[in-house]
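re: the backbone from monday

yeah here it is again, tokenized this time
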């Protein structure tokens, strides 16, 4: 299925593709969560919810593989590098009590995925301690075992976990299509540049397309 993308068309083979939804967690997206507590405008991320929901529905309808990630750490914080914990010199750090439980700790309310995009039974959820979804996770093994070579990437934030994951995936031989309106950043200019970095130089890290182009292609194969 051919998708109108930049820098040129992307040939999506649904059997070889996974929809990856990165870190759509309550602490990053919900009013009153950790992200907002740090002074960020969560509206910049929340605008991605509806486009992702529509793409997710179309992808599930077409029978494609869906995978989700969550950034976070073990309750004993044994996998939290001290450098990550103290970075930013914030009063409240990862592992401390936050508005929705301990910040970025697995099992806490704020660490979980927002209800609007909650994983369906059987959809793998990757718990990742870093920004990239391949670092210290079994994502690569799961994708390889399922014969996946293409990743359609959505989630937050564009310049941090989305870009890091796309770069990791690119070096491992995956073709990544980043869905522009399904990604977001607290900083609109970083979002724009994050997308431009992916598709620059003939698609140095991958492709970029709007969700309507992906949904249209999915509808064409299911109708
Ligand atoms: C950040 C993320 N920004 N998911 N995490 O710390 O991008």
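seq for it, each position gets an aa:
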């Amino acid at each position: 299925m051919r998708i109108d993308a930049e820098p040129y068309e992307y040939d999506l083979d649904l059997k070889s593709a996974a929809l990856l939804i990165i870190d759509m967690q309550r602490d990053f997206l919900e009013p009153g969560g950790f992200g907002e507590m740090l002074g960020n405008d969560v509206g910049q991320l929340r605008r991605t919810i509806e486009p992702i929901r529509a793409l997710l529905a179309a992808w599930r309808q077409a029978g494609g593989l869906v995978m989700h990630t969550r950034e976070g750490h073990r309750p004993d914080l044994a996998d939290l590098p001290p450098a990550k914990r103290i970075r930013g010199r914030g009063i409240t750090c990862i592992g401390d009590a936050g508005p929705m439980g301990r910040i970025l700790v697995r099992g806490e309310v704020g660490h979980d995925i927002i209800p609007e995009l909650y994983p369906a039974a059987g959809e793998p959820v990757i718990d990742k301690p870093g920004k990239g979804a391949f670092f210290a996770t079994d994502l690569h093994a799961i994708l390889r075992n399922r014969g996946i070579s293409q990743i359609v990437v959505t989630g937050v934030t564009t310049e941090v976990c989305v870009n890091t994951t796309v770069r990791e995936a690119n070096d491992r031989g995956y073709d990544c299509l980043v869905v522009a309106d399904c990604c977001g950043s607290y900083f609109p200019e970083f979002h724009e540049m994050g997308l431009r970095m992916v598709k620059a130089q003939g698609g140095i890290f991958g492709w970029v397309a709007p969700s309507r182009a992906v949904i249209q292609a999915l509808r064409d194969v299911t109708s």
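The mean pLDDT is 97. The radius of gyration is 17 Å.
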